[in-house]
Structures are given as structure tokens and as C-alpha cells.
């Protein structure tokens, strides 16, 4: 018994060290700084105000499907924002699109998925999350037209708030600032020698420093630092502990155990993975080592189709989140939403499985 415990601890420690060595410096640290900059510098109101039932569909659903990259990093952040949207008069379609896409397409999750599980799966996750979010939102809006009719009446009686003043800094500053941050992330994760990568990262960092000195206020830079730290302290400890525990779990329950269930790209395997993702609660980013280590995707035990289905359903819904959502929009709408997530995630996983063969 003691030998098994020691063996599980050692495997958990080895798994954690591998993840820290391969992904933290080149992947997670730049991604945390990008997410912190998004939270600090991009106004949430500029996105949220376009979600009303009267808004142009291409604008409402387009913004809702990608706003998770701007507004949130996990479902715990999305849920209160979704509740606020829903109660302040958002259309049910854009609101549920936002609810689904937010946790699935946040910048940390996409980057981490591509780095750990492969670029193809990371890209598929991003693209399918956007498409599925829009489709699910449109279906919800079609099924619950009466909700939007009532919302329009409420919106008509709400006072209009004046728009905020524009920033005095040149418009090109923010695009260049984020481009330099993304450049550091790309350079850090590139398969190249550090003698080549380091000068590139140094030059990009120097460019960011110049922008911060000449075009940003000290309070803005401080807020960026606090936002980055806030994200790091919320997510990184969970990721470290979760990865260690998953390594221990792999000692007692090796990935080969899940081969008969998730080893093929069939619709049945994708559907089962989607259901498992809907039931389980996985903190942000932990779904990546769960799929890679526990279910054995990185070792070839889990097929790509079920892996994508789990990535699409797991971060967006769970039993705890469904309980919260039911209190916001009612059990009936919540049940329909959960079923749509399961079915469309499974379908997307099956399609991806056929594509990759």
C-alpha cells in the first residue's frame, strides 16, 4: 500500500515537472500577460451593449461568439456576466452564444490547448467553438421567441446611457501593443533555438516598453499588472495542483482504461465524451491535462474526435454551472441549452474525427 502511494506521488510529481518545464515559461506566462491586458484595457461595455434583441444579428452573434477572448477566462467569470446580461435585456440568442463561447474560446485555453495537445486540435477548438456558439444561440432564439418579445418591451422603457469619451491616444497604439504581446507568445512557443528566439523576444519586449512609457498612464500599467496577477493567482495554483493529482490518478487508472470508450472517432465515442464533459467540473485549463494525461490523448489512447467533443462541452457546462444557469433563465431553457451543447459538441467531434481520419 505504501509502495503504491509512493509510486503515485512520484508519477504525479514527474507529470507536474514535465508540464511546468514544457509549457509555463514559453506558453502560460505570455498568455497571462495578454489576458491581463485584455481585462485591463478593453472596455467590457463596448461589447455588452450590442447584445439586445434589436441588434443586428451579424453584429450581436459575431461579437458574442468571440467576446470570451476579451471578457473572461473561465465559466466562473462568465456566469455572473451572463446573469447580468440576461436580466438587463439581452436577447436569449446572443446571451447563450456568449455563455457557451466564453469559457471555450478564452485566450489562455486556446493557446494552452494548441501548445499541449497540438496546433490542429487547438485550431479546431477555436473554430468549432465559434460556430457552435452561434448555432446554439440561433436555435435558442428560435425556440424561445416569446422571451425576446418580452425583452424588447423592457428595453424600450430603459433609459439610454451616454457613450463614453474616446481615448486621446492614437488608434494604432492598442493594435500594435497587442500585436507585440502576441508576437512574444508566438516567438516563445516556436520550435527554434533560444539563440534565435531570445533576440526576437527582447526586441518585442523593448517595443512594448516604449509604448507603455509614451502612450500609457502609470495607473493603466498598474491595473494591467494587477489584472495579470489576479488571473495568475486564480488559475495557476489550480492548474498545478490539478496536474499533480491527475498524474497520481494515472498511476491507479492508466489511460489505457479509457481506450474502449474514447479510442475511436465514432459518433458514439464523441457523444459519450460530450456527456462526460457536461457532467464533470473542470477548472479553467485543467481540461487540457485531463484530456492529454488522464484520458490519454497525448499517448494516442484517446482519439481526436472525442477529445474535441470534451473540449467543447466541458469548459462551457457542468452540473454546478447548470444549476446556476437554471436560476437565471429557468429549468426549461437550461435543459434545452444543455441538450444542445451535448449534441452539437458530439457532432463537431465526430466531424473533426472524420476530417483527421
TrEMBL record:
Please give, as recorded in its UniProt entry, the membrane topology of this protein. Multi-pass membrane protein
Quick check: keyword Transmembrane helix in the entry?
yes
**Keywords associated with the record:** Cell membrane, Membrane, Transmembrane, Transmembrane helix
Location in the cell: Cell membrane
Taxonomic superkingdom = Archaea
Note whether Cell cycle occurs among the keywords.
no
Question: Which InterPro entries does the annotation name?
Answer: DUF318
GO CC terms: plasma membrane
A Pfam family of the record is: ArsP_1
Give me the segments passing through the membrane. Answer: 20-42, 63-86, 92-114, 126-144, 172-192, 199-216, 236-254, 266-286, 306-325, 337-356
Write down the PANTHER family for this protein, in alphabetical order: UPF0718 PROTEIN YRAQ
- Please state which protein family the record places this protein in: Belongs to the UPF0718 family.
Please state what the protein is called: Permease
Species the sequence originates in = Methanofollis fontis
Amino acid at each position: 500500500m505504501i509502495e503504491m502511494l509512493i509510486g503515485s506521488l512520484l508519477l504525479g510529481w514527474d507529470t507536474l515537472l514535465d508540464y511546468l518545464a514544457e509549457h509555463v515559461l514559453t506558453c502560460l506566462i505570455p498568455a497571462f500577460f495578454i489576458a491581463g491586458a485584455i481585462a485591463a484595457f478593453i472596455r467590457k461595455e463596448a461589447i455588452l451593449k450590442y447584445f439586445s434583441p434589436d441588434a443586428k444579428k451579424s453584429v450581436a452573434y459575431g461579437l458574442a461568439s468571440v467576446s470570451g477572448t476579451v471578457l473572461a477566462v473561465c465559466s466562473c467569470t462568465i456566469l455572473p456576466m451572463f446573469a447580468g446580461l440576461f436580466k438587463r435585456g439581452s436577447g436569449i440568442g446572443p446571451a447563450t452564444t456568449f455563455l457557451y463561447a466564453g469559457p471555450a474560446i478564452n485566450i489562455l485555453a486556446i493557446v494552452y490547448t494548441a501548445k499541449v495537445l497540438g496546433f490542429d486540435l487547438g485550431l479546431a477548438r477555436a473554430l468549432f467553438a465559434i460556430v457552435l456558439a452561434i448555432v446554439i444561440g440561433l436555435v435558442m432564439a428560435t425556440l424561445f421567441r416569446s422571451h425576446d418579445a418580452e425583452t424588447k418591451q423592457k428595453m424600450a422603457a430603459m433609459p439610454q446611457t451616454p457613450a463614453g469619451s474616446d481615448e486621446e491616444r492614437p488608434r494604432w497604439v492598442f493594435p500594435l501593443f497587442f500585436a507585440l504581446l502576441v508576437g512574444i507568445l508566438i516567438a516563445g512557443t516556436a520550435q527554434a533555438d533560444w539563440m534565435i528566439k531570445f533576440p526576437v523576444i527582447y526586441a518585442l519586449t523593448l517595443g512594448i516598453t516604449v509604448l507603455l512609457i509614451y502612450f500609457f498612464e502609470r495607473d493603466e500599467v498598474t491595473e494591467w499588472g494587477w489584472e495579470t496577477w489576479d488571473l495568475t493567482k486564480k488559475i495557476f495554483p489550480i492548474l498545478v495542483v490539478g496536474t499533480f493529482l491527475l498524474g497520481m490518478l494515472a498511476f491507479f487508472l492508466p489511460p489505457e482504461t479509457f481506450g474502449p470508450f474514447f479510442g475511436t472517432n465514432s459518433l458514439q465515442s464523441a457523444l459519450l465524451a460530450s456527456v462526460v464533459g457536461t457532467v464533470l467540473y473542470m477548472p479553467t485549463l485543467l481540461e487540457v491535462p485531463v484530456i492529454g494525461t488522464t484520458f490519454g490523448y497525448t499517448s494516442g489512447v484517446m482519439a481526436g474526435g472525442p477529445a474535441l467533443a470534451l473540449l467543447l462541452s466541458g469548459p462551457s457546462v457542468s452540473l454546478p454551472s447548470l444549476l446556476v444557469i437554471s436560476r437565471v433563465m429557468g429549468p426549461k431553457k437550461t435543459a434545452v441549452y444543455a441538450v444542445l451543447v451535448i449534441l452539437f459538441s458530439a457532432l463537431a467531434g465526430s466531424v473533426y474525427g472524420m476530417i483527421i481520419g
